[in-house]
Amino acid sequence: MGSHMCDLLLREGIRVIVLDNLLTGAERNIEHLYSRPDFEFRFQDVTEPFEVDGAVDYVIHMASPASPKDYLDHPIETLDVGSIGTRRMLELAQEKDAKYLLTSTSESYGDPAVHPQVETYWGNVNPVGPRSCYDESKRFAEAMTMAYHRSRGVRTSIARIFNTYGPRMKLNDGRVVPAFMDQALRGEPITIFGDGSQTRSFCYVSDLVEGLYRLLLSDEALPVNLGNPHELTILEFAKTIEEMTGTRGGRMNRELPQDDPRQRQPDISKARRLLGWSPKVPLAEGMRYTVEYFRSMVETVA
Ligand code: UDP
């Protein structure tokens, strides 16, 4: 998502400095920008001290593992980047008098008892479960952001991002879109966790970054949901991928991970009202681009 955000900002004529330790990101996603004079990449862990010379208009804090597989592999790094990393990015925004945007998550709602999820819902999060390293880190990051806003007057916004997909995801990312794509394109069984009746709502990445950009330019400090309200079960999603790829690998069931949210759908009324934003790319179209991308990835690896 970060690389897509870079593309959008550069298109808007904004110079970009990327700080990334590439813990879970892939350098190939930004290599096409290396020759540009208005783009700079720094290998930097934002939990460590760093300095940025000159004026900065915007600070966008997107750093964090985001796939359950990645944050379960790196729970302490995930908590650090949501806490120490958030603090450092907020300090930078304060020092530069820059507008700050935090990318938070629908995981702030945990396994939600309110459906669809509205921003005013406080969530249902297990604070000590395996996913808590991500959920609580992001919830802490939201609290820290609001504290800098309220007590230090930093101009801040918080996006709660729902499941997003599209080109540039890692093949072995572990999330449902790359996992099903990889399996379908190799003709292997699609792994359905649980009975597949849990739901998610998938937003195409170009829509999502457009929402982030509008939020960056807005004055709204309280969280805003960004995502596509088109909700479907994981089983329905598997069937869509089977039809699109023509795979004959079949399916297999695996145990549902602990605290896996049963349902998830964003209420995006606030984003519509405040940002004039709503997703434009239907699932079938977004998935066509995504299948194309994963096909080339699978062929490269083969
Ligand atoms: N899932 C699945 N098979 C997989 C990977 C994920 O059935 O190989 C399910 C997972 O249990 C969850 C949903 O797909 O219910 C979305 O999982 P993902 O890891 O993409 O993101 P989450 O929304 O859980 O953060």
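qc> The radius of gyration is 19 Å.
qc> done
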